[in-house]
Amino acid sequence: MRKPSTQSKLLALIILLSLLLPAVVFAQADQPSAYVNDMRGPTQVQNQAGLPGLALELDFTILDAQGEVLPTAEAETGFVVLGNGESFNAQISKAEDPWSIVFLLDASKTMAAFSASPAFKAARTALADSIGQAPRGSNFAVVTFDDQPKTAQDFTKDGEKVAETIRKKITAKNSGNSCLYAGAYEAVSKLSGASGRRAVIIVTASTDTCGNRLPQDVIDLAKQNHIMIYSVGLKGYSATEQELDSLASATGGLASMREQDELVFAFENIMNGLNVQWRAKATVYPPAGEQAAHLSVTLKDGTIIESQPVTFVSNQDFVRPPEISLKGTVQSTAGGLTFNLIIVSPDLISQLTISVVSKKTGNPVVTQEVTEFTETYKVPANNLDEGEEYTLIVSAIDSKGQVLSQTGADFQFEPPQSALAITQVELSTGDQPAFVIEVNSENLEGVVKFKISLVSMTGNTTVPGSTQTIPAGEPLTIPVENLETGSYKVTVQALDGENVVLAQATSDEIQYERPNALDQAIQWISKTPLALVGVTLLCGVALIGLAVIVWMVMPKPSAKMKTVEMVLPEKQRRAAPIDDSMVIPAPRRAPEREPKPVQRPAPPVQPAASSLPKACIRGYAPADLLRMSAEVTKSPFTIGRREDNDLVVKVDNTLGVSGHHAMITFTNGRFHITDDKSTYGVIVKDAKIQPGVAVPLEDGMIIGLGPKVKIQFYLRPCN
Fold it and tell me: Which of 241, 283, 696, 711 is at a distance of 20 to 30 A from 390, taking alpha carbons?
């Protein structure tokens, strides 16, 4: 058989990449984004520490994966990220400056044709109707172009007047060229001296046929004056998406090509973009030279979006001062609050002051001072009321007590409903008798350890010496040595790293009977090697003595008896005469027995509708389990210590295996493992899996049943 050539391998690789590339691009594109409309700066400023930096101001719009404006999305926090990876906290707010807007309409011979008359009217009507959706306080002007630009309406805040002009006072010229770029240049020039934010909205069916202005002329003038160009092109005419997008993307605007009946949606999208523009302000400390930067913004729902890169020039190297900034949002937990900080130059910071201020009273309800810096911080919920609104304020303080940097955010305290339950208490009778406790928790975050105690039902008092603190993940046990017979209950507290009680649970009543003297003696012998050797020797001596006694009392055999052979004389005997009168009957045939009915074989067992592939589970650790194996013959296939499981793991309950620990299922052509609400979890690839979540199994995969017991899965029979 001929081996494939290098050329065929290369061709196969190219085909594979061509198939994968669209999927990768789609996965990356199927995300919202921050679209930068305008950048002001950089401007050199001084920070609180007196060090110089560069101030940047970026206006942006939140777009969905299709490039449409998301008017309901809300930005909360953000960062300006430089090309070298350094990020700087940005203040996020809505841009509130009023707009100055010039509408540029195509009135060339393209629109004067009889066939274009309905489209020309539809475009003017849709644009006029959209003026009512423009931001309040906007200043409008109207410019048209055919073979030269003309002003149809000078600046006015009277939106109705502008709409009337667009509907009734604009006519198309049936001769001459279409000077699109000359008209755009005129509209941009008209806005150069206007106040507030500035935008040109182009409506055209024509491409430029004049050539008296270049697209770059329009772009340069617009960027110098911070003017955004939005454009809507009519499909079916000479206008192209490429030329319209070149004007829009270079100046921070949006462009689209639409059918006649889709124009309403195009203008609605533009007005949404003007109404919900956001602004990010940041001071950055870059090295000298040309720099690239992009925005990273966290939305109110926790989604993180990023923008296209923008460029600027730094005239010197800037030294970054100490700075703190909130990363993400403030999360409510069962035990309080959790938030992440980005800390710059922590060696210049002496401590952090964390305050939680009530928005209802204006007074701080929690104040903490932190001298050890990490990425994640927790605030206890001692004085926080569920459903109330608060403000988190974090301040970086230097050795002189001066505030170097400050960050924070508003939040509503809404902790998730958490629960801790004791699911089982069993008495282990191994080398060290103990109560083994299994617990189940929901929505408990930050649990570092458990505090367990045994309480006597008589007097409701804690049994001395029973209280223990056990790290999370280790088996929960209470020794019962020297415990008196009686009724008891177990209490379990879940604690965080600061010993704050996150949740508490109490078991049902437990009856305990202390072993009698014989049981205790047997336990003592089993735990004492020398005693076990002594008892074994004693039993051996007793058996030898018993054998000697039996041998002594048994009768002894006498002298050996001789064998005597006796010979008698042989006597001749004559046969009796035959009587002819006697009839010798013919020999009879034995009666035929009726044949036993042939037993038909039992009908074969019908196989399952969808037979399972061969699969096997073998013990892996500890060594006692190496001989354990079982074939997976059904789905679901349960695993645990109890006898009703398909695979019974016969280990002591101190090893962390629950009664019903896990189950294997076969779905979609694959085997999966699921944590069956076990106490110490199911571990796959060195990580705990989520209870109830099916994780695919691979041939040879090692599965941890708690921290100490391991089994191995094979896609083949056990034999």
Answer: 283
The whole-number pLDDT of residue 310 equals 95
Q: What is the mean pLDDT of residues 582-603?
A: 47
| Among 162, 167, 160, 155, residue whose Cα is nearest residue 123 | 167
User: CB 223: neighbour CB atoms within 10 A?
Assistant: 16
Helix (H, G, I), strand (E, B) or coil at 354: strand
pTM of the model: 0.51
Q: Where are the beta strands (DSSP E) in 429-560?
A: 434-442, 449-456, 461-462, 468-471, 476-479, 486-495, 501-506, 510-512
Both 112 and 159 in one domain: the answer is yes
CA 662 – CA 637 distance, rounded (Å): 9
Rounded to an integer, what distance in angstroms lies between the CA atom of residue 499 and that of residue 449?
9
Share of the chain above pLDDT 70, in %: 85
Quote the percentage of the chain above a pLDDT of 90: 58
Report the candidate in 103, 123, 135 with the shortest Cα–Cα distance to residue 230. 103
Sheet harboring 403-412: ordered strands across? 364-370, 351-358, 389-397, 403-412
Rounded to an integer, what distance in angstroms lies between the CA atom of residue 696 and that of residue 6?
36
Domain that holds residue 71: 33-95+279-314
Q: What is the CATH number of the domain that holds 696?
A: 2.60.200.20
Q: What does the block give as tokens for 559? A: 């002298």
